[in-house]
Amino acid sequence: MAKDLDTAFFGHPAGLSTLFFTEMWERFSFYGLRAILILFMTAPLAIGGLGWGVERAGAIYGTYAASVYLTALPGGWIADKVLGLRRSVFWGGVLIMFGQIFMAVPHSSVLLYPGLILIALGTGMLKPNISALVGQLYREADVRRDAGFSIYYMGINVGATFSPLICGWLAQGAGFQSFLASVGIDPTTSWHWGFGFGAFGMAMGLVQYVLTGKRLGDAGKAVLGSPTPDAAAAARRKLWIAIGVVLVPALVVAGLSSMGVLTVTPTGVSRAMDYMLLLVTVGFFAWLFLAGDWTTEERRRLVVILVLFLGATVFWSAFEQAASTLNLFAQRQTRNSIFGISYPASWLQSVNAALIIILAPVAGWVWVKLGKRDPSSPAKFSLGLFFLGTGFAVMILAATAASSGQQVSPLWLVLTYLLHTVGELCLSPVGLSAMTKLAPARVTGLMMGVWFLATSVGNKIAGTVAGLYEKFTLPRIFGTVTVIALLFALLMALLVKPIKRMLARSN
Question: pTM for this one?
Answer without folding.
Answer: 0.89
